[in-house]
Amino acid sequence: MKLIKLLFCVLLVNFFFINPVIAGEVLATPTKYVTSMKKFELCTSSACTTTTLLGEKNQDFDIASATAGADVGSYISSFALEVGTTYTHVRATIGTTFTVAGYITDDNSNGISQDYCVTVASPTTASSHTSPAIQAGSNSTTNADMSWVVPNMTGSNYGNLTTSFGNNGITKTDGATSFTWIGALTSPYTPKANSAPKFTMSFDVTGQLQAFGSGGLCAIYVKPPAVSISISD
What we know:
Layout: E1 2-6, E2 26-28, E3 32-43, E4 51-62, H1 68-72, E5 78-82, E6 87-95, E7 97-101, E8 103-105, E9 116-118, E10 133-135, E11 146-149, H2 162-167, E12 170-171, E13 178-189, E14 198-204, E15 209-214, E16 217-222, E17 226-232
Antiparallel strand pairs: 1-5, 2-15, 3-4, 3-6, 3-7, 6-13, 7-11, 8-9, 10-16, 12-13, 14-17, 15-16
């Protein structure tokens, strides 16, 4: 027996792909933080061997936007859950290239030669699977949309991320254009015959645009937002 319900979803993935501790880093809140969702599934275990497809299409979401909830509500139109089955995790397939914008104020202790690190359309060193974006500092806060790429687990300027990826449900092939993330619901959910499930996510990107000094230049990257995921009646 299945339970069919329409779903409005405030959707975001908890990007625990990178959480390095870097000396001299400074942080700010991005004005734009765009991710590209490709597939979203609900799972009955952390292994996600049994899944329910909630949505599958390429769609960009600016999770720093005040309208993010309304923007992403159309990603999932309907779903079918087994009555009496307990759901515990979600799995998302996401593009590895993000679009970010904003600026970081230098606190004069990080080897950056100017007052600000700003995102630019064409940095001196473009972000890649092995490097953050690297750009000269600026005396202006003027910024532009910039691409940032989720790093490889090893062989990058971020250090060895194998343990971080594994502990936090990330699977990424080196150089791939997408990766998967598995995360736990706030609490397991078991629908009943009369259930009307509501899927909810909250997120916060405060302080997730970051930079550190690299030979007087700015190395710019993003960190994961804080996210809470739940299903309730």
